[in-house]
């Protein structure tokens, strides 16, 4: 279980997180929604430890990770698939995946076969440069790299952004498998409503760095959409 309480973060004078309290449960895909610029990416980076919260607390399975830098949070079980994917274009697919192994607490130095089972394209293109993959394949690589660290909590920041529909579907099926079979905690920042309705369990909607609505994805209404999501 991942919980955040009263989380604050500012970029200088720009207040991006204004006291967020949220709960993310194992075995569920919790969606974080909201218009552009409401603080979704800032929240993911603050949970991961790329940014230090100015105030508030982050707990992972009862451990207060707030004082930890990102690499220690990774070892504690957090992994982030960043917005824009951020794979290493000049490294091979296999080397990108090996970098993910560094977050593991066991001594495994080979890429687990289950990653290739989830994303067969990564096996086929293991020796290609990351930068030569399509956008959707790079997204799969980014997710595979995060999973190579054997996380308890997977944070994904808009994984469907700019990706072709068949790969979006494949990603959804993998995420569902991770929550049902491995009881992983998944935090999905997402703006694509159909994807949320198909794969999401619970949702939070953010505005100006605050939670303005939450509930079960099955209860997401047109009123939520018109009030908080449509542009
Ligand atoms: N490096 C930065 N320096 C200053 N302000 C920033 C920085 N990064 C983000 N911001 C501001 O913080 C706020 C939250 O940005 P953030 O990127 O977290 O939003 P987001 O919800 O992820 O948006 P999007 O949907 O476009 O990805 C915005 O007002 C943004 O302009
Ligand atoms: Mg963002």
Search tags:
231 residues, binds adenosine-5'-triphosphate, 9 helices, alpha/beta, 36% helix, 27% strand, globular, binds magnesium ion, 10 strands, 6-stranded mixed β-sheet, 4-stranded antiparallel β-sheet
Short description:
This protein is an alpha/beta fold. The chain is built from nine helices and ten strands.
> How many domain regions?
1
Fourth CATH level, the homologous superfamily: P-loop containing nucleotide triphosphate hydrolases
How far from one another are the termini?
33 Å
Indicate the CATH class: Alpha Beta
Strands, total number: 10
| Strand order within the widest beta sheet | 6-7-8-3-9-10
H-E string: EEEHEEHEHHHHEHEHEEH
In this structure, how is the largest beta sheet organized? 6 strands, mixed
Radius of gyration: 17 Å
Estimate the mean pLDDT confidence: 96
Which ligands are bound? adenosine-5'-triphosphate, magnesium ion
Low-confidence stretches: none
CATH topology grouping: Rossmann fold
Report on this model:
The chain is an alpha/beta fold. It has a single domain, classed as 3-Layer(aba) Sandwich (Rossmann fold). It has 9 helices and 10 strands. The strands form 2 sheets. It has a 6-stranded mixed sheet with strand order 6-7-8-3-9-10, with helices on both faces. A 4-stranded antiparallel sheet has the order 2-1-4-5, covered by helices on one side. α3 packs parallel to α6. The longest helix is centred in the C-terminal third of the chain and has 18 residues. The model has no long low-confidence stretch (mean pLDDT 96).
